[in-house]
Specification:
six-stranded parallel beta sheet; 331 residues
Length: 331
């Protein structure tokens, strides 16, 4: 198998860094390289405009060798590739949630249906997304494998609880599904500080100012720096309105930090019993969960314990072996 060629194509990294799929496949890569001859390429252009997409498509055609795996968010690179040798990881259906009418029709056609037609198999990162791909895009259930994201960090022991300090909340991500405006409203009467990783939209920044939230916005952090933010927080709040997976949930659990997350989409599936789950559209429910997560120390200990047990499901070698088994079947 070591001589079997596998080619991965990934999107071009953003200037401020990517916090999701890039780290996921970077984590499983060493295990794949033990079994296959693997080459990894980032497409040369960001997915902006028609010509950049076309150039990325031809780049994929030129560089493809052996089994080709498009590892997320650039499904269109499959258009000219051999169907019998192409695997696509579809991370989510967020484009369909953010659009309607003719725009939604074109997204569904060019981002999901055509790539589905041009691939032999599709992987996705949660059962939740698999069900969406079946219902929204008409993809056959037996063509889709669910392979979870691996934990990209090492777990550590929980830190000492200091009951006489000001509480610190951590929010990872700033896209519109991250629900920051409701979070701002939920913590408006709480004595705490909020650290936000990512560049805020102006509308969310105005909401934070409107409710006089004490917050810090941090952009372009390294993985190590993000790790420190987890360690310095008392609670991770991840009440998104949509997620394909939700890496911050298991990252927080690995650092021994309690989590409040949403009861919809993939989040309860990923969190297991190691988090408080809430309706992300109900501000009062978010507030109540945050207060409990900060002040109920028996609950905090239980969440930390359950979180450490939950992350065993996302062992990198285990996840890598699932990809390896898929490649062997295609061979």
């Amino acid at each position: 198998m070591k001589n079997t060629k596998i080619t991965w194509f990934a999107r071009k990294p953003l200037p401020e860094g990517n916090y999701s799929v890039e780290n996921v496949f970077k984590t499983v890569r060493p295990y794949i390289e033990l079994k296959f001859s693997l080459k990894v390429y980032n497409v040369p252009f960001h997915t902006i405009g028609l010509w950049r997409r076309i150039l990325n498509i031809f780049y994929g055609l030129y560089k493809s060798d052996g089994i080709v795996h498009i590892v997320g968010d650039i499904h269109y690179v499959s258009y000219f590739l051999s169907k019998k040798k192409t695997v696509i990881t579809m991370l989510d259906c967020v484009l369909l949630h953010r659009s309607s009418g003719i725009k939604c029709f074109f997204y569904k056609l060019f981002w999901y249906k055509l790539p589905n037609y041009k691939s032999i198999h599709i992987t996705t990162i949660s059962q939740s997304v698999k069900m969406e791909l079946i219902k929204k895009c008409g993809i056959a259930p037996d063509k889709i494998s669910v392979i979870y994201c691996p934990l990209t960090i090492k777990s550590i022991k929980p830190k000492f609880e200091d009951n006489n300090k000001k509480f610190k909340l951590l929010q990872i991500g700033t896209t519109e599904n991250k629900n920051i405006s409701r979070l701002a409203k939920a913590i408006r009467n709480l004595d705490c500080t909020l650290t936000i990783i990512g560049r805020l939209y102006t509308s969310d920044r105005l909401e934070l100012l409107r409710y006089s939230i004490k917050y810090v916005e941090k952009v372009g952090l390294s993985s190590a720096e993000i790790g420190l933010e987890y360690l310095n927080s008392d609670l991770v709040v991840f009440c998104s309105t949509y997620e394909g997976f939700g890496l911050p949930i298991i990252e927080a659990q690995a650092y021994g930090v309690p989590v409040v997350t949403s009861n919809i989409s993939s989040m309860p599936e990923i969190a297991g019993d190691g988090a408080i789950v809430v309706d992300p559209f109900k501000v009062d429910e978010i507030t109540k969960a945050i207060v409990s997560g900060l002040t109920d120390f028996d609950l905090r200990k239980l969440m930390i314990k359950n979180g450490f047990n939950n992350i065993k499901r996302f062992n990198p070698e285990k996840i890598a072996n699932q990809y390896a088994d898929l490649y062997k079947k295609l061979i």
